[in-house]
Amino acid sequence: MSKTPRKSSKSEGLQLGRAVEWPDTPERAKLDRVPNPQADTNYVVRFTAPEFTSLCPITGQPDFAHLVIDYVPGQWLLESKSLKLYVASFRNHGAFHEDCTVAIGKRISSEIKPKWLRIGGYWYPRGGIPIDVFWQTGRLPKGMWVPEQGVAPYRGRG
């Protein structure tokens, strides 16, 4: 395996490796995909965003979540810098917890077409009630080991 990074003419359109403006809305954010060099092998990829923020669509107050995204790639991998920019685009976006979590999962799935994807949105309490949101698509390939998402249920004092 070569230690020299490969440059592809297809990578020229990626946000990776160059300065880009932060997107101000999820709709304006671009998610990049790259070819999966191990497309003949089933494996799990995990992204964790422990400091996700969005806004309450009613009050405008900030909401905070710990997101965990697991997927089994097909032909494409999700490029991590573009995911970081996409996630950050929610900082000024007003939407309910359920909408943010499911929309992120659907958008990623539509861009990279994984064999299987799940997202867990572990939201910090709003009005004293924590809300956890889970969404998945596709079928987990037989024999795949998927670790627990590792986020403990919210527990206040006690």
TrEMBL record:
One example of a Gene Ontology biological process annotation: tRNA queuosine(34) biosynthetic process
Active site: C56 (thioimide intermediate), D63 (proton donor)
Top-level taxon in the UniProt lineage: Bacteria
Record keywords: Cytoplasm, NADP, Oxidoreductase, Queuosine biosynthesis
Cellular component terms (Gene Ontology): cytoplasm
Class of this enzyme: oxidoreductase
GO molecular function, one term: preQ1 synthase activity
Region: Disordered, residue numbers: 1-35
Pathway: tRNA modification; tRNA-queuosine biosynthesis
Catalytic activity: 7-aminomethyl-7-carbaguanine + 2 NADP(+) = 7-cyano-7-carbaguanine + 2 NADPH + 3 H(+)
Keyword hit for Oxidoreductase: yes
A Pfam family annotated for this UniProt entry: QueF
Intracellular or extracellular location(s): Cytoplasm
InterPro entries attached to this UniProt entry: GTP-CH-I_C/QueF, NADPH_dep_7-cyano-7-deazaG_red, QueF, QueF_type1
Binding, substrate: L78, E79, S80, H97, E98
Entry's EC annotation: 1.7.1.13
PANTHER family: NADPH-DEPENDENT 7-CYANO-7-DEAZAGUANINE REDUCTASE
Similarity section: Belongs to the GTP cyclohydrolase I family. QueF type 1 subfamily.
NCBIfam families attached to this UniProt entry: QueF-II
Function statement: Catalyzes the NADPH-dependent reduction of 7-cyano-7-deazaguanine (preQ0) to 7-aminomethyl-7-deazaguanine (preQ1).
Entry-linked HAMAP family: QueF_type1 (MF_00818)
Name recorded for this polypeptide: NADPH-dependent 7-cyano-7-deazaguanine reductase
Organism: Bradyrhizobium canariense
Upper lineage: Bacteria, Pseudomonadati, Pseudomonadota, Alphaproteobacteria, Hyphomicrobiales
